[in-house]
Design a protein that fits this description.
The complex is a heterodimer. Chain A is mostly helical. Chain B has one domain: FAD/NAD(P)-binding domain, CATH 3.50.50.60. In chain B, the strands form five sheets. In chain B, strands 6, 12, 13, 14, 15, 16, 19, 20 and 21 form a nine-stranded antiparallel sheet that branches. Chain B has a five-stranded parallel sheet with strand order 7-2-1-11-22. In chain B, strand 4 and strand 5 form a beta hairpin. At the A-B interface, helix 2, helix 6, helix 7, strand 2 and helix 9 of A face helix 2, helix 10 and helix 11 of B.
Chain lengths: 224, 616
């Protein structure tokens, strides 16, 4: 966790203010005419856009929700980075196949899974889904170790208590508060509600409102 | 630390939880000079750091936002002010392991409730439930011939009624007296300070489904639970926004927590606080008054940084450390060997009769989506079975309705169910074919489960039992070298018959709801597994019990100094200037979440102490 001290924040703010004030003294031209500072181009920009499309197919959540125009959370970049750190080659292969395919996204994923001899794509894609849904990173290797044949298989009629718990690591507070499982539940992240007193006594909006794009033209009132 | 060494304090309080906080507030308001010693960290400037720790926590257990950060594998022998944690208790291998668990456990069953040692105490993460005790809860011997210790004659529903109001006004309770009037002897001289919290969709569904259902001659009814949660702006705090996070932390302090009282106490200008200050021994004068308290202090690094003594024989000392740490401190205080079983213990009752509300938590899927994970964690309960003739034979219970789906029932949903459906597992039991899904199929299937989840919680009265006892470990110490608490815990047959009745009632309610049950049956070797007595069909069932976080008993009040530790004013029988306050004074546990009764008793005691000081 990055520790930001109060002193550090104040110092930073002062430095920024001084810099702005200093530049005004040196240059009489209005601030808005200053050339904007050059931001280094993101070398992963295209890959991240491809990753967002892949994520849409994997999660079933609309692209406009995963990567909104105004995006205070930045989940796509964060999850892309975690996936790349975990298995860069596999991620590149998945993205190439996904972008190169002419089929529907769901069919393409099924094809990728069918060709995935060493199962590396399968478990990386599961990690990506869980990162979006839960804001936590479940390493592909942990998912692989605990799949297929759980050490303590359940018999659904006997209901044993032993669990096959896979350790997940929260990616960041933003990743948690922007995690998608709460949308599927038509709820809000526990500990992060923007709703109003008493909402829990009423039905939530319809499911699609949480996972699909908002209609540009809302249905008009009946004009009879 | 404030410069306390040269100052005379009228009152020194050990522990800054809700009990110590309320007494400090009232005495500060009456212009008495008060010092509070707190073993843990101060009240933070704001809760941002706590929220950050909560968001980052992989397991969002009650202790997750609070310090010290025990989510890391800390050795309890190295922690200055240690505490039991959910993670150290929930793992079946860890509960008896002193290298993992702060509390040394020697009982047949784990004591599975935890507490905090920080400013505000354990109620920093309480649910906020503010039920009153019922009139019969105070007279189990007279009414139901239970051979239990009795509450003092002066403490009963009628004498506490006004104090209940005062407590409800101080901490801010939302409720409806009409909904809470289900006991014919129970009366409310006025209504709650705020209107009741609205019922959730799950509450409403259960309310309709159980209409007309009778058990033991009683109609079951879903009632809005009185709670220290704002249904209106109250004392400069906001209205609840339904963050569904009362435990571990309300992000907007719409739920009362004791740090609010501590700020108010400090604002009187008459209350000083010493943090990271652990009381080590209560020391006596020759004539049996408390002379001073010896303490140890530690720094932010957790290492001991100092020691000292505070108080004089004219000071009134109030111990408010909870029902495990208070008997621990009393037993650590041996009056130079003259009292080997600890001060204030001529009755031999210090540490005995440790109680909780053993909780049976069944869970399942409703036939329709009723949308859990919305609203406060619990908004309603079924209270009608808290009292009845059956209490002669078996323990009673209340039923809490959860709004948080299977969140804690399965050990961390929605994560558990989501991982199941993505990685082809079946921990949640909703994925018997081990499907691994993605895309629209995942959304549809997961939504179908999550929006129908619900759980109940049966909080069972625990019979007091001398065997259940807090003593000191002879072998294990904490980071300051002080002996750690050793706990023996078990459940009596009377209590287990109450759990059996809870299981039967749960089955009946699930049938009424047409719900599909997913409650796990524990393995035989699960430490929290209970074998129930044979049911009507002659079958023995096994269930798992949980702790409710209600630590009760261990320095009970009474009218007989030989059988109780404190009197009705929570004053020690043995030492005139010593008060022991909190849920530790309850002779019996009843079925109400205990904090409101604690608050009522503490406000009453604060008035007694103030009168005593005024007279002096």
């Amino acid at each position: 966790m990055t520790e930001i001290s109060r002193r550090g924040l104040i110092t930073g703010a002062t430095a920024a203010a001084t810099a702005a004030f200093g530049s005004m003294l040196i240059s009489p031209s209005p601030l808005f005419a200053q050339p904007s500072p050059k931001v280094a181009a993101d070398p992963d920009k295209d890959a991240k856009a491809q990753f967002a499309k892949l994520s849409e197919a994997l999660t079933g959540i609309d692209l406009s929700i995963l990567t909104p125009n105004v995006d205070p959370f930045g989940s796509n970049g964060e999850i892309y980075r975690r996936a790349k750190e975990a298995k860069a080659d596999t991620l590149r292969t998945i993205l190439d196949k996904f972008i190169g395919s002419a089929g529907t996204p769901a069919k393409t994923i099924t094809e990728i899974l069918a060709e995935d001899k060493d199962e590396s794509a399968k478990f990386l894609m599961r990690s990506i889904i869980l990162a979006w849904y839960l804001g936590a990173w479940y390493a592909p290797v942990d998912l692989k170790t605990n799949s297929y044949k759980p050490r303590n298989t359940y018999d659904s009629t006997r209901r044993y208590s032993r669990e096959v718990l896979i350790p997940g690591k929260v990616i960041s507070p933003n990743a948690y508060t922007n995690s998608m499982v709460w949308r599927v539940a038509q709820a809000h992240p526990m500990g992060y509600s923007n709703l109003q007193f008493g909402y829990w006594g009423q039905e939530p909006p319809v499911a699609e409102m949480f996972t699909k794009p908002l209609p540009l033209d809302p249905p008009k009132p009946d004009s009879k | 630390m404030n410069d306390t060494s040269q100052k005379h304090y009228d009152v020194i309080i050990v522990g800054s939880g809700i009990a110590g906080g309320l007494v400090a507030l009232r005495l500060g308001q009456s212009k008495k000079r008060v010092l509070v010693l707190e073993a843990g960290e101060p009240v933070p400037t704001n809760i941002n750091a706590e929220m950050d720790r909560f968001y980052r926590a992989d397991a969002k257990v009650p202790e997750s936002p609070y310090t010290p950060d025990l989510m890391k594998d800390l050795d309890p022998s190295k922690v200055a002010a240690g505490r039991p944690t959910v993670l150290s208790l929930s793992n079946s291998e860890d509960w008896r392991d002193p290298s993992k668990s702060y509390m040394i456990q020697t009982g047949t069953l784990p004591f599975s409730s935890t507490y905090e040692r920080t400013a505000g105490g354990t109620s920093v993460h309480w649910l906020g439930t503010c039920l009153r005790l019922l009139p019969n809860d105070f007279r189990m011997k007279d009414k139901y011939q239970r051979d239990w210790a009795e509450w003092p004659k002066g403490i009963n529903y009628a004498t506490l009624e006004d104090w209940y109001h005062k407590a409800e006004d101080e901490i801010g309770v939302s409720g409806s007296k009409d909904e809470q009037s289900y006991d014919k002897e129970m009366f409310f001289s006025k209504d709650y300070p705020m209107p009741a919290i609205p019922k959730s969709l799950i509450d409403q569904f259960i309310e309709t489904a159980i209409r007309g259902m009778k058990l033991g001659g009683k109609d079951l009814k879903v009632r809005s639970t009185p709670a220290a949660r704002n249904s209106q702006p109250f004392k400069q705090r906001r209205t609840c926004a339904g963050n569904t996070n009362c435990i571990p932390i309300c992000p907007i302090q719409a739920k009362y927590d004791p740090t609010i009282t501590l700020r108010d106490a400090e604002a009187t200008g008459n209350v000083d606080f010493c943090y990271r200050t652990v009381a080590k021994e209560i020391c006596l004068t020759e004539n049996g008054r408390i002379d001073h308290i010896e303490y140890l202090q530690y720094g932010k690094d957790g290492k001991q940084s100092g020691s000292g003594k505070i108080g004089d024989s004219k000071t009134i000392f109030v111990i408010a450390c909870n029902a495990i740490e208070t008997p621990r401190l009393l037993r650590m205080s041996k009056a130079n060997g003259k009292m080997p079983e600890g001060v204030a213990n001529s009755s031999g009752q210090v540490g005995r009769n440790l109680m909780d509300h053993p909780m049976y938590v069944p869970w399942g899927l409703l036939p329709q989506s009723k949308f859990p994970y919305r609203g406060p964690l619990s908004t309603s309960g079924i209270e009608d079975l808290r009292d009845g003739e059956f209490r002669k034979e078996r323990a009673s219970f209340r039923i809490e309705i959860g709004n948080e789906g299977w969140n804690f029932a399965v050990g961390g949903d929605p994560n558990i169910t989501t991982v199941d459906l993505v990685n082809g597992l079946n921990n949640s039991l909703v994925n018997p074919n081990y499907d691994a899904l993605f895309g629209d199929a995942l959304v549809t299937r997961l939504r179908n489960v999550l929006t129908r989840q619900f759980r109940l919680g049966f909080l069972v009265e625990q019979e007091p039992d001398e065997k259940n006892c807090v003593t000191l470990s002879e072998k294990h110490t904490d980071g300051l070298g002080l002996p750690r608490p050793e706990v023996y815990y078990s459940l009596s047959d009377y209590t287990i018959r109450g759990l059996a009745a809870a299981k039967k009632t749960a089955d009946d309610i699930f049938a009424r709801l047409n719900a599909t049950e997913y409650t796990r049956i524990p393995d035989k070797d699960d430490p929290t597994a209970i074998e129930l007595p044979p049911n009507e069909a002659g079958r023995r069932e096994r269930i798992r019990f949980m702790g409710a976080g209600h630590i009760i008993g261990t320095y009970r009040m009474g009218d007989d100094p030989k059988k109780s530790v404190v009197n009705a004013d929570q004053r020690s029988w043995d030492h005139k200037n010593l008060y022991l306050i909190g849920t530790g004074v309850f002779p019996t546990s009843a079925t109400a979440n205990p904090t409101l009764t604690l608050a009522a008793l503490c406000l009453r005691t604060a008035e007694k102490i103030n009168n005593e000081l005024v007279k002096a």
